[in-house]
Fold:
Amino acid sequence: MKIGIQSKELTKEDSQILAHITESARKGTPMESKMTVETLATNIEKLSKSDEYHVLTATDEKENLVGWTYYYIAFPLMAFINGYYPVVDDVNDSERITLSLIEASKQDIVELGQHSRLEIETIFYSEAHRAHYNKLVDSYRDCGFKFAAEEIHMKSDLRAIELPEIELPQGYLVKKLSEVSYNQLVQPAFHTLKNSKEGLFLSLNHAEQETTLQYWFDKSKPYIDDASLILQRDGNVVGFVITRPTDDAPEIGPVGLLPEDRGKGLASYLLANVLENLKNSDAESVELDTTVINHTAQKLYRKYGFEDVYYKQFYYWSPS
Structure:
């Protein structure tokens, strides 16, 4: 089969065809949805018309649509694919179509010339989702994608936990994010995360790490000031917990503490105070992500009622 790849704004008919392909490809898998074909088609058409999203379609030698994928631009340097894409028709050359769409996404990034990373993020709500994704991840590996990290998404019911009163060790001071400048945060944050087990951050190049920190500490985005606490020693930042509102529940992250200030109960102090302030604001629950290999952080979070909800896995490809 001769495969053609296109990037264009989709017609309603194109979107309907891709919606039917998606429904058929996902039937009987963990990705099967109750969404109607009409709703799915509308969503696909909207993606193709958005400046943030780039839809790529595959056609056969008769120019019939046989598959599609998309990536989106969240912020400078990095483009992202949500997991379980590409979606392809059930034909003999489905594996080759999948590889062609992945390679076309990479080529798009090269031609744009503004991005140094294409990252895929996949959520595993169950072991069935993981098994389904494992069939696709081999295609990404064949196209040069590398494993970055696996994380656990955790949640705590604030109504069910009792928080201890922890005394702040002498010589330390706590401020709110609104009281500390980005310039005061950036170098300690670099040092903290460079000496951490945060695999996703460590897989970024330096420029991407800078962009990520700017995104994490951006005060123009909504944040919960009483639950975004900065720890200082001798006027210098040594730790931080940032909390932002989401549609479901407040979400904590990033969290960091300088290596030389660990082991003193400071992380527990910060977390307990953040959770107390969230409870006082009538929040019912709170969520966060942590890497699966950071057992120390998991132990701390479980102490405060956090339980596993789902897992995330990240792979990435860089042009250079």
